[in-house]
């Protein structure tokens, strides 16, 4: 049993569940304490010691029956309780069918007698099905179908119907036929479950025997390649990332309070002392930035905008003030949403209220709305950040408005996930936007996005 538990833990690790050596030992001790006689108590002890996060529960529930499930299906002998006449009728019906289906005789006998497949039958079918070529659990349904084909199971329902039809013609009463149907279908389900259990257990054991492939750090996975699980994990970790950025900012401010000598101011202040540095002067303290965020929340930019907005609003103590806008076809002010809700709830509401459409991104029109309704948000201390790939679906890019925002603000920056090599391709207007900005940060993954945010905070 200990070896089986070790294999189970290795399979969970291979599936991405974080389990330390100490937790594995805790699982062993827990099972020693509660025993293995009661399956539910045993399962609860394993789950309590091995599963720490809600998202790992599904993996535990998936693999547990593969390693600790019943080895034999629940099947019944259909001939039990039959009268001698019915048994004779059954033999005659089966002989009549076997004239056309000799290859299926063993399977039909198994259904009738309630006999599961032997280990040898399953091993041979697995070899013929190419089970050793299966590399991950996503292939399990495919391998189950191949196993069923090798065991002639695809014809089971057809055999049952033909057998019942033959018995009906021979005079078996309707009640007996229905009871027989229920029993045969239960046995067929038992055989299917046995094949499914064997396939899953074999693949899980193979996973346990192999070293789990190292997963890339989510900080480095491009936004365009994030899975749903990856996105959810990032959403859960975003506050920790914000805490790290806040710590960096606090450290910079502490160093600023200690002071960095300002030679120019110090020399001017000490001219009355014949340039002897009696009075020290320090550089100006760090100034918190005032931000205006203009975020593209179309399909291609959705994750980038979501993570940036969440980060910025988790770091509001490091920002003087923030005005936020999102756009697809037109601009929407979302600042009040973040004032009324915490960042996680606010971003969920914003994305729900602003669903992406089909090829309708229009930054030019959105910038026109910004000039008409929100230009007062910008002054000489404001840092404007446009989050987008500069693609306008061949609409007017309104470079003139972007240039006006650039002149009026302290600086205008772009956060763009696309490399420079893609600027100007298709409907991209980045080659026109870049010259009327103070710089473009490439933010194709979370690490680059966090670095760009950190740079903004450090520059004030």
Q: In what order do the strands lie side by side in the largest sheet?
A: 3-2-1-4-5-6
Shape: elongated
Question: Do you know the CATH topology of the largest domain?
Answer: Rossmann fold
Q: Helix/strand-derived class?
A: alpha/beta
CATH domain class of the largest domain: Alpha Beta
Helix content estimate: 55-70%
Q: Can you write the helix and strand succession as a string?
A: HHHHHHHHHHHHEHEEHHHEHEHEH
How many runs of DSSP E, i.e. beta strands?
6
**What's the mean pLDDT score?**
82
Content of β-strand: 5-15%
Number of domains: 3
Please outline what is shown here.
By secondary structure, the chain is α/β, with parallel strands linked by helices. It has 19 helices and six strands. Helices cover 55% and strands 7% of the residues.
What does this structure look like?
The chain is of the alpha/beta class and 460 residues long. The chain contains 19 helices and six strands. It has a six-stranded mixed beta sheet, with helices on both faces. Helix 17 links the parallel strand 4 and strand 5. Helix 9 (156-169) packs antiparallel against helix 10 (174-209) and helix 13 runs antiparallel to helix 15 (343-353). The radius of gyration is 34 Å and the shape is elongated.
Main features:
460 residues, 55% helix, 6-stranded mixed β-sheet, alpha/beta
Q: Topology, please?
A:
Elements (H helix, E strand, L loop, with lengths): L1 H13 L6 H14 L4 H12 L6 H12 L15 H15 L6 H9 L5 H11 L10 H11 L5 H14 L4 H36 L18 H31 L4 H7 L20 E7 L5 H13 L6 E7 L3 E3 L1 H6 L2 H11 L9 H11 L8 E6 L11 H10 L2 E6 L13 H4 L5 E4 L3 H14 L1
Parallel strand pairs: 1-2, 1-4, 4-5, 5-6
Antiparallel strand pairs: 2-3
């Amino acid at each position: 049993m200990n070896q089986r538990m070790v294999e189970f833990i290795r399979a969970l690790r291979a599936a991405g569940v974080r389990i330390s050596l100490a937790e594995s030992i805790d699982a062993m001790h827990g099972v020693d304490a509660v025993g293995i006689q009661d399956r539910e108590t045993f399962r609860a002890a394993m789950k309590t010691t091995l599963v720490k996060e809600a998202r790992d529960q599904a993996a535990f529930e998936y693999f547990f029956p593969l390693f600790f499930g019943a080895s034999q299906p629940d099947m019944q002998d259909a001939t039990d309780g039959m009268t001698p006449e019915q048994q004779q009728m059954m033999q005659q019906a089966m002989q009549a069918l076997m004239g056309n289906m000799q290859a299926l005789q063993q399977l039909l006998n198994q259904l009738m007698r309630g006999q599961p497949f032997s280990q040898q039958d399953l091993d041979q079918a697995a070899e013929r099905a190419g089970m050793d070529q299966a590399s991950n659990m996503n292939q399990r349904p495919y391998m189950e179908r191949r196993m069923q084909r090798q065991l002639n199971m695809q014809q089971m329902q057809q055999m049952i119907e033909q057998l019942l039809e033959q018995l009906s013609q021979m005079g078996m009463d309707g009640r007996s036929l229905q009871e027989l149907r229920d029993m045969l279908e239960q046995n067929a389900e038992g055989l299917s479950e046995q094949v499914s259990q064997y396939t899953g257990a074999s693949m899980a054991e193979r996973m346990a025997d192999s070293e789990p492939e190292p997963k890339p750090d989510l900080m480095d996975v491009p936004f365009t390649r994030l899975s749903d699980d990856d996105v959810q994990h990032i959403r859960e970790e975003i506050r920790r990332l914000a805490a790290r950025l806040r710590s960096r900012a606090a450290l910079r401010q502490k160093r600023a309070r200690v002071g960095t000598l300002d030679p120019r101011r110090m020399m001017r202040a000490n001219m009355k002392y014949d340039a002897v540095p009696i009075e020290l002067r320090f550089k100006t303290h760090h100034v918190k930035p005032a931000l205006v965020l203009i975020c593209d929340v179309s399909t291609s930019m959705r994750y980038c905008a979501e993570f940036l907005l969440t980060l910025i609003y988790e770091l509001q103590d490091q920002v003087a003030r923030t005005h936020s806008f999102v756009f697809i076809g037109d601009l929407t002010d979302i600042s009040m949403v973040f004032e009324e809700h915490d960042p996680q709830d606010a971003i969920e509401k914003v994305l729900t209220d602003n669903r992406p459409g089909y090829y309708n991104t229009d930054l030019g029109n959105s910038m026109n709305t910004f000039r008409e309704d929100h230009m007062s948000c910008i002054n000489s201390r404001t840092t404007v950040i446009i989050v987008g790939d500069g693609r306008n679906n061949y609409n007017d890019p309104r470079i003139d408005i972007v240039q006006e925002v650039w002149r009026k603000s302290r600086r205008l920056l772009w956060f763009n996930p696309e490399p420079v090599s893609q600027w100007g391709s298709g409907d991209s207007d980045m080659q026109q936007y870049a010259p009327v900005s103070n710089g473009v940060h490439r933010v194709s993954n979370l690490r680059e996005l966090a670095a760009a945010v950190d740079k903004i905070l450090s520059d004030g």
